[in-house]
Amino acid sequence: MRAICVFSVIFYHLGIFSGGSIDIFFVISGFLITGIITRKRAEGTFSLKDFYIKRIRRIFPMLLLVTTIVLAVGYFVMLPDDLENMAESVVATNFFNNNLLFYLTERSYWAAAAQFKPLLHTWTLAIEEQFYLLYPLFLLLFKNNKPFSRYCWP
Questions:
Q1: Is 44 left (phi over 0), alpha (psi -120 to 50) or beta?
Q2: Using one digit for the tens of pLDDT, what is the confidence trace for 53-74?
Q3: What value does the CA radius of gyration of the chain take, rounded to a whole number of Å?
Q4: What is residue 54's three-state secondary structure?
Q5: Is 19 left (phi over 0), alpha (psi -120 to 50) or beta?
Q6: Which residues does 102 contact at the CB level (< 8 Å), separation at least 6?
Q7: Which of 22, 24, 50, 90 is least surrounded by Cβ atoms within 10 Å, i.e. has the fewest?
Q8: How many other C-beta atoms lie within 10 A of the C-beta of residue 149?
Q9: pLDDT mean across residues, the chain
Q10: Which is nearest to 63 in space by CA: 94, 87, 88?
Q11: What whole-number distance in Å separates Cα of residue 9 and Cα of residue 12?
């Protein structure tokens, strides 16, 4: 399913396909995270600390590599105003708030000229990481609520 999503997004950006499938990424991620949490909870091995450490270890190395490369290339090819905007985007990306930055500065994903926003695509990563941050807390908060818990815990 992920491959279908990736190809549909690529085809969308190439003008071959009329719609992206980013929403499927979110559904897959939610499904996988819910499965991980409920399985570990049923086994009695779920730990918020371990959950967050695994997410950090999985995401941060590549994220820091990409943002470092983008900054280095941007330093040589961008004008000062564009470089400043990109630096803001790097900070927002590293704190998983790029979706909020683009909303506050651009008001639309399509309003920004992509060549001046090399981290534009990271808004989806921000949403996913915000989900990873809040969703486990939400599930744990409602685990003892009888009507709700039957949907979350086996």
A1: left
A2: 998 898 889 999 999 998 999 8
A3: 18
A4: helix
A5: beta
A6: 109, 112, 117, 120, 123
A7: 50
A8: 13
A9: 78
A10: 94
A11: 5
The full DSSP string for 13-40 is HTTSSS---HHHHHHHHHHHHHHHHHHH
Cβ 21 vs Cβ 4: under 8 Å: yes
Read off the pLDDT of each residue in 130-146 and give the average, rounded to a whole number: 77
Tell which wins on pLDDT, 146 or 132.
132
d(CA 21, CA 10): 10
Question: Is 0.85 topped by the overall pTM?
Answer: no
Which of 46, 61, 122, 116 is closest to 91 using CA atoms? 122
Mean pLDDT, rounded, for 127-151 = 73
The angle subtended at Cα 121 by Cα 115 and Cα 127, nearest 5°, is 150
Give exposure, 93-114, as e/b (b: 16+ Cβ within 10 Å): beebbbbebbeeeeeeeeebee
Range list of H helices, 1-153: 2-13, 22-43, 48-77, 80-94, 98-106, 123-141, 146-152
**Residue 68: predicted pLDDT:** 93
Spatial separation of the C-alpha atoms in residues 40 and 60, rounded to whole Å: 23
Q: How far apart are CA 82 and CA 146, in angstroms?
A: 53
Distance CA 16, CA 12 (A): 6
